[in-house]
Amino acid sequence: GELPESESLRTFEAAFRPAVLPLRVELRPREPQLVPAFPGSAIHGALGRALWKTVCAFPRRRECMGCPLLNRCAYPALFATSAPAADSLEQLGIRDQAPRPMVLAPEAGWTLPSRHPRPVEAGAEIPFRLTLIGRAIDDLALVVVALRQMAAGGIGRPLNPGAPGEGGRRRYADLQLARSAAEKGGGMGFR
Questions:
Q1: Is the pTM of this model over 0.85?
Q2: Contact, 7 vs 130, CB < 8 A?
């Protein structure tokens, strides 16, 4: 038999969805900041908080486990991916958390062995890679909204914390998002 129109459209879209979507993200601070020596952890934490604030329907909950929307929410799918109980997974060392379908990595040279924060001037580029894998690509729009919120909050500490921002609110960084150099095609600018 034939598939219903909506089902055949989903099948068609799935056939042409890329398996991996590598992106290059650039944060540009609007004011001087101290960026942590290990920016990957700071980016992961700031993006996780921003995504949770963006998508969580029950923000008073302390954890995702037990949430009625657990299997339909982008936050646990990207940041707290549960692994199904299986002996074959336990043999691989995977007990409760599955590998994440979103990978974050700072560009080379951004992790400092000194463990001291790095001062970054206003307008300087803080680049990192974000790769979405499989179904996580469907959450790209939510990830972009969370990236914008993360940029607004910054990943470092301002060097001049008392200075007010535009209209009394601070906006710590601007965001630029583009497909990685390995991918052909234009960039996507988000300001």
A1: no
A2: no
